[in-house]
Amino acid sequence: MIDPKLLRQSTADVAANLARRGYTFDAAAYLSLEERRKALQMDTEHLQGQRNKSAKSVGKAKAQGEDIQPLLLAIKDLGDQLAASESALQEVQSQLKDIELDLPNLLDASVPDGRDESDNAEVRQWGTPIELPFDARDHIELGENLGMIDFEAASKISGSRFTVMSGPLARLQRALIQLMLDTHTDKHGYEEKYVPYLVHASALVGTGNLPKFEKDLFRTSGETPYYLIPTAEVPVTNLAQDAIFEVGELPKHFVAHTPCFRSEAGSYGQDTKGMIRQHQFEKVELVHFVAADESMAALETLTGHAEAILQKLELPYRVVALCAGDVGFGAAKTYDIEVWLPGQQKYREISSCSNYNDFQARRMKARRRNPDSGKPELIHTLNGSGVAAGRALIAIMENYQNEDGSIRIPIALQPYMGGAESISA
């Protein structure tokens, strides 16, 4: 959430920044509501003071044997006025909060201009896209020919956008997850977390998923509904909810493996076949809590940690800086890591690494103790996939395929596969 003080005092600057995203901020309507709020706030405080003063007068008049009925009537009238004023104030505050929750984050000045993904800026490449000496198969054909991916069975059980994997291919995904967790904990120094897969709405508000992306979430029914997590970012980032980190406690680096659940409401017709875009998938998530002046450097570090996994797997990839029109709702700056898929002959996103600045922290009231002033101040939060296991599996299948349909196992994964060097029918 953007600082309300900034919205009030630098409205034109905020509107100009949001316009880079293609978002129109009705500054006049916001400021008009804010003026209404201030007037109602003053009226409410004045009425509260009048009521308290009158209440004291009742006690004094009663002690002096005076008729208190007129005073009681006056207090009742003040109470009615106060209730009406408080109700109007609450309504205006609610309208302001709705506007503030709907506003995307302010973009960092380093984010390139542009309208959509076609304007994203390539930062670097690692490795060379593989040129196979035969016609490359995609992961769908490879998996079905091996008899280890069954979309039909998944459809009978759950419908479209689900997958059943079997045997060595299922183990290969598990091996990928283990490699990621081991690398991030042992080499990169992350603390591993096991977190709930069901969360309250407040946790999703804290990370910026609600109210904006309600349609993309799966929700349970019942008196107290829960939401299935769309990513481990939600429960892990909310570990900072209502917290004040003392001097020396930051930075914190967390890693968590979870399933992720997304309705994909906004992706109708996109990647309907295969495992690129699923309702349920596995991901290893990286989350950083840092001081404000350290977050941009932390974004580079976090992105590098995600890249290290692809380098271990010897998968060609590129890093792109998302342009203003493609940066996600809550992010101030984002790098996407895109892995090369021979079956599609193009790069596809496998990790998105973002700096949220204080956008999530303000919603969660996540703070740290300033070592100089001793006062609490908002932290900055970052997260990124380290990386998406399903898409990493697809990348291995397509980049390590043989002409006979078998799949070589990357050297880094062989210890997790019992020493096996390939997967075949």
Describe this structure in words.
It is a single chain. It contains twelve helices and 17 strands. The longest helix is centred in the N-terminal third of the chain and has 37 residues, at 27-63. The two termini are 52 Å apart. The chain is elongated, with a radius of gyration of 27 Å. The strands form five sheets. It has an eight-stranded mixed beta sheet with strand order 1-10-11-12-15-9-8-4. The protein has two domains: 26-102, Serine-tRNA synthetase, tRNA binding domain (Helix Hairpins), CATH 1.10.287.40; 117-423, Bira Bifunctional Protein, Domain 2 (BirA Bifunctional Protein, domain 2, 2-Layer Sandwich). With 425 residues, it is an alpha+beta fold.
Q: Which CATH class of the largest domain is shown?
A: Alpha Beta
Shape: elongated
| CATH architecture level-2 label of the largest domain | 2-Layer Sandwich
Helical content (DSSP H or I, runs of 4+): 40-55%
Low-confidence stretches: none
From the helix content, strand content and strand pairing, which structural class follows? alpha+beta
* Radius of gyration over C-alpha positions, nearest whole angstrom: 27 Å
Reported by name, the CATH topology of the largest domain is: BirA Bifunctional Protein, domain 2
How many E strands?
A: 17
Strand content: 15-25%
Please report the distance between the alpha carbons of the first and last residues.
52 Å
Strand sequence of the main sheet, in spatial order? Answer: 1-10-11-12-15-9-8-4
